[in-house]
Every structure is written in C-alpha cells, then in structure tokens.
C-alpha cells in the first residue's frame, strides 16, 4: 500500500462516484477503479458497495476513511515539521548562560526569541564561562552566553553587550548614604566578596584590573560561585562586591548599589558557538542575536 492508494480512496469516498473522483484526480476512470480494487485485495476487505446506480462506503470503508484522513494528516505534519527543522524554525536549542546575564539580558533574549521562533524548544543550562567552553568542545551545548574574552580558536564569538561595574554595599556600610558615583580607590581597605578565578577567568580578571587601575589589589574575604550568593553575603554584612550594573535588577532592602566614577574595565558579554556547528536551529539563534542585539 502506498500513500497514493489512500488519496485515491479518499477521492472516491468523498465523491461516491468513480467518474467524478477520476476527474478530480486528473486521471482516467479505469486506472482509478483498478487502484481501488488493488487496495481492497490487499486489505482483503470491500471498501465500497457498488451498483449500477450508486457507490456507497461499506462499514469497513467508513472506518478506513477516518483512519486514512488521520494518516495523511500525520504525513503532512511530518513533512511540515521536517521543513521547519531544515529552515531552523523548529527543533531544540541547548543554551548555556552565566549568572551575570540572568538578571536582564537573558530574559529579554528568551522572550523575543520565543516570540519569533515558537516551535524551537530551548534547554537552559547555567554554567560558568570556563564550563561553557568545555561544553562547547564536547558538543553538550549549542551556544554559550558568557564573559569575554575567551580563547576562541575553535569558536565563533560575537560580543552582545558591554556594561560597567557597580559596587554592592550592605545598607549599614559607611558609604551607603552616598548619592553620587564614588571613586574605586576609596574601596581599597574593604573586604571583597568575589567569584573564584576558576569559575570565570575573564570576569575575575576584569575585577582585579579595575582595582589595580585604582591603585590597590582587592582583599578577598569570601568566595561566591554565583552572583546571587555574592549578593546574599553582601546583605549579611560580610563584605562588598563589584558586580555588573545589570545586577541592580535584583532588589534587596539590605543592599545599596552605587555607581563608580571611572570604570576602566567593563563586563563584556558575548555568544560563542563551535565553528563546526551545522544545526539550522543554532544558525537561526545566531541570526536572531545579530539582528536584535549586535
């Protein structure tokens, strides 16, 4: 049995007339009659009751018609899905991100991308920049949203955003009442909460560079693997933290955010994907980033 047999059967079942069905199918009547007879022989079932005056569906024919509609509809859907996947309009995208973009940029990207590509299923993984590079190498993620710069020999890299650093202080801190941007140098004697370098070399190095430009090296009092954890430590009064400005979207009554006067270093956020990547879904996402952000 082939799909054409189902199409022939449906045409005759809807017209209940072999001549009209043949006209509709743009074929001669004898070959159509032969194809229907061939189908009935294969099924070993009469699908039509034929007399000189009329053609009617048998009970078996009525059931077969219902299933034939379902089969052709599923075939049509399968064809459309295959075409959508080939065009990069459907499928799955495994997207990794660092905590530093989770506050503003990531929700914005996800919302707009899902509006444009509702049939692409996004699987999110929160990984440090270092972990993302490893995951890109072993192809366990498609695209990484991470802190730049990175060693990009095997990857395509696009910068998405550059944002200044701000300082997060406990509300009881002596500088918490300041209303103007402060100079980084006045933080020289503070206790800093920092992410470890192994979690993201570029992010760590940017903070070290910012402090060294101001004439000091930060005194680290506590490691925090996640920026949310760093904020929690700041709120508890353990120390202060230099963080990307988008962190201010996280509201906490026990924390005060202050702008910095001169930020010699910024937090650079980018997208990276493997140069060998061939997935149409990935290329759709990169094209979306280039049109929307870059």
From TrEMBL:
Output this protein's name: LysR family transcriptional regulator
Q: Spell out the family assignment given in the record's similarity comment.
A: Belongs to the LysR transcriptional regulatory family.
Q: Name one GO molecular function term.
A: DNA-binding transcription factor activity
InterPro entries for this protein:
LysR_HTH_N (IPR000847), LysR_subst-bd (IPR005119), WH-like_DNA-bd_sf (IPR036388), WH_DNA-bd_sf (IPR036390)
Q: Which UniProt keywords apply?
A: DNA-binding, Transcription, Transcription regulation
Q: What does UniProt give as GO cellular component?
A: protein-DNA complex
Report the Pfam families cross-referenced here: HTH_1 (PF00126), LysR_substrate (PF03466)
Domain HTH lysR-type: from-to ranges: 1-58
């Amino acid at each position: 049995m082939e799909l054409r047999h189902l199409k022939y059967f449906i045409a005759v079942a809807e017209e209940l007339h072999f001549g009209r069905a043949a006209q509709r199918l743009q074929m001669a009547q004898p070959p159509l009659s032969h194809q229907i007879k061939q189908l009935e022989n294969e099924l070993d079932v009469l699908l039509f009751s034929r007399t000189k005056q009329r053609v009617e569906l048998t009970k078996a024919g009525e059931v077969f018609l219902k299933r034939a509609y379902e089969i052709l509809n599923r075939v049509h859907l399968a064809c459309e899905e295959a075409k959508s996947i080939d065009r990069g309009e459907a499928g799955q995208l495994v997207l990794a991100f660092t905590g530093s973009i989770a506050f503003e940029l990531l929700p914005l990207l996800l919302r707009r991308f899902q509006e444009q590509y509702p049939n692409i299923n996004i699987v999110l993984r929160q990984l440090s920049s270092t972990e993302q590079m490893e995951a890109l190498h072993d192809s366990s993620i498609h695209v990484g949203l991470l802190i730049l710069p990175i060693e990009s020999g095997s990857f395509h890299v696009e910068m998405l955003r550059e944002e200044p650093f701000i300082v997060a202080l406990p509300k009881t801190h002596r500088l918490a009442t300041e209303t103007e941007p402060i100079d980084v140098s006045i933080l020289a004697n503070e206790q800093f909460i920092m992410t470890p370098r192994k979690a993201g070399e570029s992010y760590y190095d940017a903070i070290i560079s910012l402090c060294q430009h101001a004439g000091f090296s930060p005194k680290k009092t506590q490691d925090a693997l996640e920026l949310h954890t760093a904020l929690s430590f700041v709120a508890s009064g353990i120390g202060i933290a230099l963080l990307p400005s988008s962190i201010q979207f996280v509201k906490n009554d026990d924390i005060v955010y202050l702008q910095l006067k001169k930020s010699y270093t910024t937090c650079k956020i980018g997208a990276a994907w493997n140069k060998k990547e061939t997935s149409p879904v990935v290329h759709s996402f990169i094209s979306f980033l280039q049109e929307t952000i870059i």
